[in-house]
Amino acid sequence: MNQARLYSVIVGPHISEKAAIMAEKRNQIAFRVANDATKPEIREAIEKLFNVTVEDLQVLNVKGKTKRTSRGKIRQKSNWKKAYVKLAQGQEIDFATAV
Q1: What is the distance, to the nearest Å, from the Cα of residue 40 to the centroid of all Cα atoms in its chain?
Q2: In which band, very low, low, confident or very high, does the pLDDT at 73 lie, cut at 50, 70 and 90?
Q3: CA angle, corner 36, sides to 31 and 40, nearest 5?
Q4: How far apart are CA 56 and CA 58, in angstroms?
Q5: CA 64 to mean position of chain CA atoms
């Protein structure tokens, strides 16, 4: 995979209460990824960009919420993809210094 694709696969870390608990207890980190990204691409991108070993990877599609605008119209937020990455024992990603 070329360098440009590596950077476009990972959109960024997904920060939430659930993600913080999973990072602390299970050594799993949540990422927002590109909608067209596959599991092998996500695994390769994380291993090369952060120099870690991915032990397990779970990917899910998050359906966009339906919102009502100020003029009463109903709009659909975009769907997006999330990846839960389990790192090998003793490894971690420091987002302040990584990439």
Answers
A1: 14
A2: very high
A3: 70
A4: 7
A5: 16
DSSP string, 36-93: T--HHHHHHHHHHHH---EEEEEEEEEPPPEEE-TTS-EEEPPPEEEEEEEEPTT---
Q: What is the pLDDT of residues 34-72, one digit of tens each?
A: 999 999 999 999 999 999 999 999 999 999 999 999 999
> Which are the contacts of 6, defined by CB distance < 8 A and separation ≥ 6?
44, 45, 48, 49
* Yes or no: domain 3-87 corresponds to CATH 3.30.70.330: yes
pTM above 0.90, yes or no: no
